[in-house]
Amino acid sequence: WMNSFLIKARLEVKDLFTDLADGKMLLRLLEIISGEKLGKVNNGRMRVHKVENVNKSLAFLHTKVRLESIGAEDIVDGNPRLILGLIWTIILRFQIQEIEIK
Asked: Which GO terms describe its molecular function (predicted)?
């Protein structure tokens, strides 16, 4: 599902849990599906830079949907349950809801 959007930015997710860890793909995905700019991506390689990128994504999502029990550290650490839950929440908000409106 993600790759169908990320192809527009010439990006591809191969391993969901590691590819989202730095927050860059998540930011790009949200920009593409929302049509909004979410700010500059931090290209640093340190954990603090990754957490910053994921926090930008989560802050944006908090304005659109209710997120509970998920923090940037969960994504950076590759927590499968929370990452899958986050992706499902994004699908529900940006795909399913859009279909219902039409």
From this structure: actin binding
29: domain CATH number is 1.10.418.10
**7 DSSP 8-state letter:** G
3-class state of residue 85 by DSSP: helix
Please list, in sequence order, all residues whose beta carbon lies within 8 angstroms of the beta carbon of residue 10, skipping any fewer than 6 positions away.
Answer: none
Q: What's the CA gap between 29 and 93, in Å, rounded? A: 13
Q: Give Cβ neighbours of residue 24 (< 8 Å, ≥ 6 apart).
A: 41, 43, 53
pLDDT in tens, 79-90: 999 999 999 999
Query: Whole-prediction pTM value?
Result: 0.90
Note down the domain range covering 86: 2-97
Q: Give the pair of three-digit tokens for residue 71.
A: 């923090």
What CA–CA distance (Å, rounded) separates 24 from 41?
A: 6
Among the listed residues 41, 44, 63, 62, the one whose alpha carbon sits nearest the alpha carbon of residue 53:
41
